[in-house]
Design brief:
Layout lengths: L1 E4 L16 H5 L8 H20 L11 H25 L8 H41 L9 H17 L10 H10 L10 H29 L6 E4 L7 H19 L8 H16 L8 H49 L4 H15 L1
Parallel strand pairs: 1-2
Length: about 350
């Protein structure tokens, strides 16, 4: 697990980040915000806190259900949308941003699109596995007659294929942990010039980026089957959402680490339910397996129910990941268009070509 310490007393040792205290750069000592800007910032942070509260799991069994993951991705998209709204409310056009802010935004957005592509690839792989399960259910249709020996063998073969393929990982996931580490490092922003709008925007963007790293690290851990991608971020209590986030992160990351410490646990809860049912059927369809009609029928019905739940969960999560991808992409497009309107063309054009290459890759 990657640990990023975001605030600590000075102890004479070099900090993780080479630039000093990020919070002093977000709000330098003595900085002043007008009531209007302060209200906009407080509204953004309070909304973020409420979203994070919705993700607090009731128990460890809820942490990595597909429904929890879908909610996490949905709420993350909403927070990204809020940033766009905040920029408009601040009347702070992109052309007025500091060049370093622009570089950070453009670089991070490319990284997020890469992560979304990796997630979509993994979800597509899991969905393909559903085809094998549908084949099993079709062959073992016991509504009328008991399956023949040949049908049992065909079902057994399909189940074996599913069990071998389901724990394979998309190669695109391998780079996600590296990307998340880079995103965590970039949390440390460059100095902010004397701009109240800039201070509000940078503080709000910090919240978005913390939520993004948290959600994406949890997804990467779930899909990769490893706790290593988890990122432990310690947020200063200067932020209105800090306490909620720190508690949420502790519950979720701790719960995931506990799950990984148990052998034979499939980290995605919906997938684990299917795998349990599949293993039962695998034994029943083997040459020396049980062949009682009622037991086979019940096992087939149980698999059908679990597979249907998995299919619905995967479909919902796939839609939320696609929605988030489009959110990041359209936000980036708007950013580049605003820069062109402002007269800066060379760098945006290079970045625009870069994102097109990423999307089609």
């Amino acid at each position: 697990m990657l640990h990023i310490e975001m605030s600590r007393p000075h102890d004479g040792n070099s900090p993780f980040f080479p630039f000093g205290n990020p919070f002093r750069m977000i709000f330098p000592k003595g900085s002043y915000l007008s009531p209007r800007f302060l209200a906009l910032l407080n509204s953004f942070e309070e909304t973020l806190a409420e979203r994070l509260k919705k993700l607090k799991p009731k128990d460890h069994g809820d942490i990595l259900s597909l429904s929890w993951m879908s909610l996490a991705m949905q709420l993350l998209s909403e927070t990204h949308t809020d940033i766009k709204t905040l920029v408009t409310d601040l009347q702070f056009p992109v052309s007025d941003w500091d060049d370093k802010w622009m570089d950070v935004y453009l670089d991070n957005s490319i990284k997020l699109l890469d992560i979304c592509i990796a997630f979509s690839s993994e979800l597509s792989r899991l969905n393909q596995g559903q085809l094998l399960l549908q084949c099993v259910l079709h062959v073992l249709d016991v509504s009328s007659t008991f399956p023949s020996k040949e049908q049992l063998m065909r079902a057994h073969s399909s189940i074996s294929d599913w069990m071998q393929r389901i724990h394979l990982r998309s190669p695109k996931l391998e780079n996600c942990a590296v990307i998340l580490h880079e995103l965590a490092e970039s949390l440390h922003l460059p100095k902010i010039k004397n701009s109240a709008k800039g201070k509000v925007l940078m503080r709000a963007m910090y919240g978005v980026r913390i939520e993004t790293i948290f959600v994406c690290s949890v997804f990467t851990a779930a899909f990769s089957g490893s706790a290593k991608p988890l990122v432990d971020l310690h947020v200063s209590d200067k932020f209105l959402w800090a306490e909620v986030f720190n508690e949420l992160q502790g519950d979720v990351n701790g719960g995931i680490s506990n799950l990984f410490s148990k052998e034979g646990i499939t980290i995605l809860k919906d997938l684990e339910a299917v795998e349990t049912s599949v293993k039962h059927l695998y034994q029943m369809t083997s040459a020396d397996g049980l062949t009682e009609t009622d037991k086979l029928r019940n096992s087939v019905l149980d698999l059908a129910k679990c597979a249907d739940g998995l299919s619905q969960g995967l479909d919902l999560l796939s839609k939320e990941v696609e929605c988030y991808f489009q959110n990041v992409l359209t936000g980036r497009d708007a950013f580049l268009c605003n820069l062109r309107v402002g007269g800066t063309e060379s760098e945006p054009q290079r970045q625009e070509n870069s994102v097109e290459e990423q999307v089609v890759r």
